[in-house]
Each structure stands twice: as structure tokens, then as C-alpha cells.
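User: Can you model how nicotinamide-adenine-dinucleotide sits in this protein?
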Amino acid sequence: MNDGDGVTRRGFVGTAGGAALLALAPRVVRAAATGGRRRYAIVGTGVRGIGMWGAPLVARYADVLEFVGLCDVNPLRVEVGRRAIGVECPTFTNLEEMLDRAKPDLLTVTTVDATHVDCIEEALARGVDVLTEKPMVTDEEQCRRVLAAERGSGRNIVVTFNYRYAPKHQKIKEILLSGEIGTVTSVDFSWYLDVHHGADYFRRWHRLRERSGSLWVHKATHHFDLVNWWLDADPVEVSALGSLRHYGSRGPFRHSNCRPCPHKERCAFHWDITKSPELVSLYVDCEKADGYLRDGCVFREDVNIPDTMNAIVRYSNGVSMSYSVNTFMPIEGYRVAFNGTKGRLEIRDYERQSWDVPAEPEMFVMANFGERRKVELEEAKGGHGGGDDVLRDLVFRGIDVPDYMRLPGSRAGAMSCLTGIAARKSMDEARPVRIAELVEV
Ligand SMILES: NC(=O)c1ccc[n+]([C@@H]2O[C@H](COP(=O)([O-])OP(=O)(O)OC[C@H]3O[C@@H](n4cnc5c(N)ncnc54)[C@H](O)[C@@H]3O)[C@@H](O)[C@H]2O)c1
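Assistant: Here's the modeled complex, given as C-alpha cells:
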């Protein structure tokens, strides 16, 4: 089946190992049922490795998993990470050594984005399944490498797109599948990062394109995956604009980082990491090993990613999307609307605002020539709108879910990253970029 514009969806599934993507969760469950536990390791013991794929697994999945190794290039952080996770397993600063000595059969990758590719390749080459954090890759060459590595390995990659598993995002999927708004023709999608969370990207390694791929990839991969999934379609072509308007060299003054900053009294973005004992032990106390400043200045000259982005994306089913990200807003959240032949589905979900109001996602289905229906949403519990808990249960317990909620694999990982990679290239080269010119599918 050809979905148009040269992107063959089924062909990609076949070559990228898509058919095998469901296998990871059942295998974990099978190990538990026979009394065995999967040998489990993590590379990258920062906040995500500890908080999402470390400590909660010790607490809730010890019957199906045995921690056999932790690895981080920072020798101090890997020890802090081990204590925070609460395990006694060996620690390593070299991934190959961990894979060879600890012999895990499942590796979670929670390193800096641009290093995922090397970790994934090393694991697959040794017959180890991979659970990788998003974004799977940060450029098209890495994408080709990962797909090729999986193809020859007989093992699986699962990409941890937790946003899909938030109940409100499932509700959107169900309404679209129901046909209530007819055939979707276009999508309006605006994502807002506030002056706290948005600024934090510019303090950390994310501010460097060579580490995060820019927010086009690091952040937007979540949103592009949601849209691919909601629409059940592939991106075909992307046109984009992006610029640095507020952070980095656009700032009025700067210093290396917040702690010693002479401008702290007058800087609205000043952030005192010493107020968090957890972050001090995970980052400040580990600075001497790698020089990484977790409270970096948002106005550093080396910021080389845009903070203001707009894109138009064309999809394989004829849908078009207008998409934007703004990173220094008084609100944190998004608005998304699906325009269809019979009506419109509209969601406003501001999880935080600068004034004192509760987070209240609002969802409406509006019928052409008809009424407006408010969609009742269940209260979200847990991280990322409730998505984190469901995702972990799906991976480690193989819970029953409808077909459209099965675990995303390398194909989904590739397609979401490629949308952002195409947007970045379009921004750089001032031309529309086709997905098919990035990765041969
Ligand atoms: N799905 C989500 O909602 C979500 C949320 C947060 C972070 N993430 C992802 O999780 C990953 C980790 O993010 P984080 O916030 O924990 O970052 P972090 O900076 O806190 O941790 C990254 C860790 O990786 C280590 N590292 C870097 N390169 C390495 C390598 N080659 N080998 C071994 N260790 C290496 C660093 O020393 C650091 O300890 C990123 O890919 C990020 O995009 C996903």
C-alpha cells in the first residue's frame, strides 16, 4: 500500500521491524510467569533514568525485573543514581563493559538525546532489547543507523512515548476514531512552554543543537508522535520557520550559571538550584567529574536552538497541520483542534498558569449545523498527565489495551523525529523538506 508521495507505510513497517514491536511487553510478562525475572539495566542515571525507569520499577515491578547494572559517563552521578534508585547492582562508566559483564536482556536508554544512537546500537548488537526515551535519534543519519541495527538484530526497540498514554490523549484518539467530526482535514496545534519549564531547556544541554537536536526534535517529537498516532498517518513534507528571540545572545546580560551570577538580583530567570537537595546531589555535587552546570545561564552565547518555532506539516492522508512552539509564556500547556467535515474537536489544556487557577483541561466536540458537546475528562494522576504509569504497566505487565494503544516502536520513533528533523532543515535552508529525502523508506 502506498500512502502517497512516495512514503510506503507498510514497506517501512516491514523494513524497520515494525511487526516485531509488540513483542517486548509479552516477553517481560512471560519471564514473570515462569518465576524468572528479566535482567534489567539503565544507561543514563539522570532525573529520567532515576525517576521514571529506576526507583518506580524497584517499588512496583521487582517480581518481573532484576537490576543488573547502571551506567553513566559521570562516575559520581552513577553512584548517586544507584542510591536514589535503591539498588545494590554494579555500576559502570562504560556501556560496552556493562553490557558484556552485567549481561542484561533489557536496556533502558536515558542519556543525552544525541547519544541514544550509540547506546541502542551497542545493545542490539549484543542481542539486548531496548527501551529508549524519546527522541529516538536527533538526525537522519542516526535514524538510518538505528533502523538498520534493529533490522539485523532480531531484537526490539520500544520508544517511550508516554504522552500517548495520558487518558485525555486516548479520549482524543477515541473521538477521532468514532467519526463524530467526520474526516479530519486539518489540525491547529500550539504548544506553550512557560518561563519556568521553557527556560529550563535553555539552562541545560538541550540548548545545544548537537546534543538535543533542538526543541524541534527534543520536545516536538512528543507532539509529532501524538499527531501521527491521532491521525494514523505519516508526515510527508514540512515547511518551517524558527528563530531565537529571547534567550541566549538575545539576553541583556549573562554569566556562566546562576549560583555565582552577579546579575541575580535583576534577572527574572535566576534559579536557585541549592533549594533542591536532590538536584544538588545529582548535579552540583557531580560537577567536578564533567563540568556540567545544571543551573546554566539561559542567556549564554552558545545557545544555538530557536526559542520560537512555526511549522506546516502535510500528512499522507491529505491532512495539513499548522504547529507552533513558544518557550517563554505565562502559561504551560497546549491548544489543539481537529477540523473535520462534520465538525471540530477542540482542546485547551493549560497545566500551569502564572495566576492561581487549577489545571482544568477543556475538550469540546462541535457539530457543523449542530450543538457543542463538552467532553468529561477523568482527573489525571501521576506524571505526564497519567501517561507515565500506564506506559510502565504496559511495558512491564503487558496490561490489556485496545490495539491503537500498543507500544510504539522504532517506526513511530523515526517518524516523529523525522518531522522535527525536516522542520529544522526547512528552517535552515528556507525550503519545504520532504520526509522521503531524509530516510529512504
Ligand atoms: N518522555 C519524557 O517525558 C521525558 C522527560 C524527561 C526526559 N526525557 C528524556 O530522557 C533522557 C534523559 O533526560 P534527563 O532529563 O534525565 O537528562 P539528564 O541530563 O538529567 O541525564 C542524562 C544522563 O546521561 C548521562 N550521559 C550522557 N551521555 C552519556 C553516554 N554516552 N553514556 C552514558 N551516560 C551518558 C549524563 O551524564 C546524565 O547523567 C533524554 O533523552 C530526555 O529527552 C524524556
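A couple of observations from the model: The radius of gyration is 22 Å. The CA atoms of residues 131 and 427 lie 31 Å apart.
User: Helpful, thanks.
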